Amino acid sequence: MGRTPRSNLLEFYGIECDHCVDMEPLIEQLKEETGLFMRRFEVWYNDDNLRLLQKLDKEGSCGGVPFFYNKRSREWICGATTYPNFKAWALGQPSERFLPPPKEEEEGKEDTSTMGQIRSFIDRIRKEGMERMQSRMGESSGENAGTKAKGGAFVWPRVIHLVRNAIAPKAVQTNRRSSICPSTLALASAPF
After folding, report:
1. 120/183 Cα distance (integer angstroms)
2. How far apart are CA 76 and CA 122, in angstroms?
3. Is the omega angle on the peptide bond into residue 94 within 30 degrees of 0, that is, cis?
4. Would you say residue 181 has pLDDT above 80?
5. Which residue has the higher pLDDT, 100 or 154?
6. Residue 40, burial from CB neighbour count under 10 angstroms (0-12, 13-18, 19+)
């Protein structure tokens, strides 16, 4: 029985690592195109493999997985990368150690990340609040209706000034129970 030659290309990965999973199709493509294959070492549940990774990742330059090491050229790649960069590394050609693949965001696609959802929620609430305030101001009449500012928002400069500079600081300074409505105190600390 013939023995399979050992590969000079090493991959260090974690079982649940999303970036490692993203690289699997590139590893298969490399094998199909060049005949080169990867020796794989799982590091999250295998201490021996982790020690080998730490030995090859001198000074913790990468510090994570996936980590690819070419024993022949002594070059490495940290994290998911593009196929051209990955292939150049495997062939011993110049490559970038840190070259993440481009993000696959379609133009006009809604941002579904947590921060995108939060931004969308805040924008929607802000828009609804502005519309309600404008409709209320349209119903009011007389001098107390406020003044119209840029963007269609109404403000009451005198009221905001009184609340911020007179009422709220005195309630805080006296350190006594205040008869000021909690929403008025909240208004005093609101960013305008």
Report:
1. 26
2. 43
3. no
4. no
5. 100
6. middle
The residue written with tokens 């913790």 in the block is: 60
Nearest to 183 by CA among 128, 167, 125: 167
Instruction: Report the share of the chain in percent with pLDDT over 90.
Output: 39
In this model, does residue 41 exceed pLDDT 60? Answer: yes
CA atoms of 134 and 157, how far apart (whole Å):
16
Rounded CA separation 4/123 (Å) = 60
Distance CA 77, CA 11 (A): 10
More confident residue, 180 or 38: 38
Structural contact between residues 62 and 79, judged by C-beta atoms closer than 8 angstroms = yes
End-to-end, the C-alpha distance of the chain in Å comes to 79
| Rounded Cα–Cα distance for residues 177 and 67 (Å) | 61
pTM across the whole model: 0.53
Res. 47 pLDDT band, cuts 50 70 90: very high
What are the Cα distances from residue 57, in Å, to 82, 96, 100, 151? 20, 15, 18, 55
The pair of structure tokens assigned to 81 is: 């990368």
E strands of 99-170, at which residues? 147-148, 154-155
